[in-house]
Amino acid sequence: MVEATEPEPGRRVHLISLGCPKNRVDSEVMVGKLQSGPFELVDDPEHADVIVVNTCSFIQSATEESVDTVLRMSRYKSDGSCRKLVVTGCMVQRYGRALEGELPEVDHFLGTGEYHRIDAVLLGREDGVARSYIDTPLYLADDVVPRVNSWAPHSAYLKISEGCDRRCAFCIIPKLRGVMRSRTIPSLVNEARRLAEQGVVELNLVSQDSTVYGRDLHDGSGLGPLLRALARVDGIRWIRLHYLYPHGIPDAVLRAIAEEEKVVPYVDMPLQHASPRMLRAMRRGVTPDGQARVIERIRAAVPNVALRTTFIVGFPGETDADYEQLRDFVQAQRFDHLGVFTYFQEDGTAAAELDGQLPDAVKQARQQDILSIQKRVSRERLKQLVGVPVEVLVDGVSDESEWILRGRMATQAPDVDGQVYLLSAPAGVRAGQFVNAKITKASAYDLVADLGATS
């Protein structure tokens, strides 16, 4: 981490990061740039001279949360404790300069390709210091840019690429993040080394579409070679892969997961549906049979793999028959981890113009039905682990009790999957440490393990 200089009066900054891990990495870059200059980051907005809100706008609920957060933070400006309010990220990129009239409380708006300007804007170094900086997103942070990991001292997200070239009918991301652009393998390895030097032992690789990582570089880079290069970084113990598109996954990627000890047996692969009609309407470019074959390939190559996926229910025109196909697919595939979104009619997407929009009650009923199926599947799978010794990465003290530690197995990603609650932990066990434990109890999503019963 770059040492922060002594802050000048009026340069205490409070930053709020909303949305996905990819957005969080952007926030960490902004924090790194601010702390490299004469700024001090503060945890309490009441003590801030400047408040920065890095927004999300992937779905309507995220936009609403972003607006609510901006309005809530604007109160600190109106009462005089904060002198400047800055809004960055996806909501700015989506709605552009229209926000200047909608949110007059905000001093500056920075789009998804402009957040690296944050220090210059706050210092007044930009020519004229415009109110809004919004353009086609082209910026791509690299290992040279300072970044402060905010997730946990022992765990970090590593953004391997930015943007997306897919044109799924329901998705606004290409408009918010621009075209696909990959970071180089040397740049990613350098950042991984720096994170390891700071105490990080777990890397979670994220992007909009990890499957096609490196193809735009035209130098032989790819996800398989990247995984093997990262596995050579001293200090890193776990490398986990997120957001694979279910088409064109190279064999080299599966071999790397299977052969590299540090690459954990975990694949996060959003599928979105399992009806041929719905997949065509969603413009996914895959079929249910193709998805099933990809899953079979992954499980054959990595027999102990944990699979995470997400689905969308209530897409325009989804019939009872379409939904039953999805339901049958979920029951047959028995995923380790699964999330379900209800479709929302997002302005600016192709799907928003489709006929056959479904009532919210139907969407919510289908969401709960899929989740209930997954709950049964997850409970059955986790019960099979009772009595099994496992390695657990300790994350810290449980929210439920200061006497219980919480952690995760390699097959559990931070924030989105279940946890392992550790009993009988000897003194000195701390966050970031790997421990051996034996699973003693299982619920639908979480596990209980005993550190004193591993023999």
Task: Summarize the entry for a quick read.
By secondary structure, the chain is an alpha/beta fold. It has helices at 21-35, 60-78, 90-95, 98-102, 118-123, 173-177, 185-197, 223-230, 251-259, 276-281, 288-301, 320-333, 360-383; strands at 12-17, 40-41, 50-55, 84-89, 108-110, 132-133, 155-159, 161-162, 181-182, 202-206, 238-241, 263-268, 306-313, 337-342, 389-397, 405-408, 420-423, 434-442, 447-450. 32% of the residues lie in helices and 20% in strands.
Task: Offer a few descriptive terms.
455 residues; alpha/beta; Rossmann fold; pyruvate-formate lyase- activating enzyme; OB fold (Dihydrolipoamide Acetyltransferase, E2P); six-stranded parallel β-sheet; 13 helices; 19 strands; globular; disordered N terminus
The residue fraction in helices comes out at 25-40%
Tell me the total number of β-strands.
Answer: 19
CATH topology group of the largest domain: pyruvate-formate lyase- activating enzyme
Whole-number average pLDDT?
92
